[in-house]
Amino acid sequence: MHRMPIINPMQHDRRSQPPLSSNGNRRSIREPDVTSVKDATADIEADSWAATLTPRLAQFAAVARYEHVTRAAARLGMPQSTLSRSMARLEQDLGVALFARHGRTVSLTAAGRTFLASVERALSEVDRAAESVRADADPGAGKVAFGFLHTMGSETVPELIRAFRADHPRVRFQLIQNYGEAMLERLRAGELDLCLTSPVPDAPDLVARRLDEQKLRLVVPDAHPLAGRKRIRLAEAATELFVTLEPGYGLRRITDKLCAEAGFTPRIAFEGEDPETLRGMVAAGLGVGLLPPPAVPRPGVVELTVTAPRAVREIGVAWLDGHPDTPPVAAFKRFLLSRRGQLLLHR
């Protein structure tokens, strides 16, 4: 693993010259920086401008605002002599005079005014970034980035959030619907705090807890010979054409597993990304499918209880192991875990 060099604030001798370029040559102040944004942000070296100048930018802005080192030092809560040395070092590092001195007062040079405009924008961005992350972590009004399966979106998730917000009315949610593997990748990337998924993942970098299970039904067209039945063994559908979710979806893996347990490999007629779309294809007579219950009954289909093998999918919540929770995330996690066995509207 690459380690970022540690900056020793006492080592000022090298900073009296412009920073080194990537090939080891001293970089001119006016030389265009051809480093890509990606390269510039990937690793801040100890001799980069960012590492060299950042600690003194707010001090520079204060001196420029007050045009008086002593007043600026009092505002910053630091000794005047320390601030004076810091500004001298800043000018030395840049190789440019930023201030014209007039006794105890100072004024900006043309270079100083140019530099100040960019510094104020940079400091404003830092302030906004800090306020944003503080707001997201606010216990009463912070943000939870929450992922869930498409099939959880019409009833389960709205009901969960409604119940949670009864006690946390100002907590905000960023809601992401996706299939299981994609959500786990976003969890690992830090884009999600928590996700509801199925199957419940078993991975060393994740923590997962089973919350509930959902019965799957064999859905057939209402004109199908099996439509008069209420229950069926899955092996009785071995000769049928199936409509399923695409490979990579958790429900597809469960379908393949249950069919294998029933002694056959399903013949796939159509693959899709949304269970309700598949239910519509069943209604159109294009195949049968193993699907979770619909939010609203769908005309044109009959849903049969599968008696063997046991056709269910487990629903669980997952999060990144070792990832610290903000107060709103911790509160919502506790809430989800308290709903074990009561997560779904069972039909």
- Structural class of the secondary structure composition? alpha/beta
What do the pLDDT scores average to?
85
Order of helices and strands: HHHHEEHEHEHEEEEEHEHEEEH
Q: What overall form do the CA principal axes indicate?
A: elongated
Helix content class: 25-40%
Tell me the number of helical segments per DSSP (H or I, 4 or more residues long). Answer: 10
Kindly, what is the distance between the CA atoms of the first and last residues, rounded to a whole number of angstroms? 51 Å
- The largest beta-sheet arranges its strands as 4-3-5-13-6
Uncertain stretches of 5 or more adjacent residues: 1-42
- Estimated share of beta-strand residues: 15-25%
Chain-wise SSE layout:
Blueprint: H1 37-42, H2 49-66, H3 69-76, H4 80-94, E1 99-102, E2 105-108, H5 110-136, E3 143-148, H6 156-165, E4 172-177, H7 180-188, E5 194-197, E6 206-215, E7 217-221, E8 231-233, E9 241-245, H8 250-261, E10 267-272, H9 275-283, E11 289-291, E12 301-308, E13 312-320, H10 327-338
Parallel strand pairs: 3-4, 3-5, 8-12, 9-10
Antiparallel strand pairs: 1-2, 5-13, 6-13, 7-11, 7-12
Helix pairs in contact: 2-3, 2-4, 2-5, 3-4
In words, what does this structure look like?
- The protein is α/β, with parallel strands linked by helices.
- The chain has ten helices and 13 strands.
- The protein has helices at residues 37-42, 49-66, 69-76, 80-94, 110-136, 156-165, 180-188, 250-261, 275-283, 327-338; strands at residues 99-102, 105-108, 143-148, 172-177, 194-197, 206-215, 217-221, 231-233, 241-245, 267-272, 289-291, 301-308, 312-320.
- It has a five-stranded mixed β-sheet with strand order 4-3-5-13-6, with helices on both faces. A four-stranded mixed β-sheet has the order 8-12-7-11, with helices on one face. A two-stranded antiparallel sheet has the order 1-2.
- Strand 3, helix 6 (156-165) and strand 4 (172-177) form a beta-alpha-beta unit.
- The protein starts with 36 loop residues before the first helix and ends in a 9-residue tail after the last helix.
- Residues 1-42 have low confidence and may be disordered.
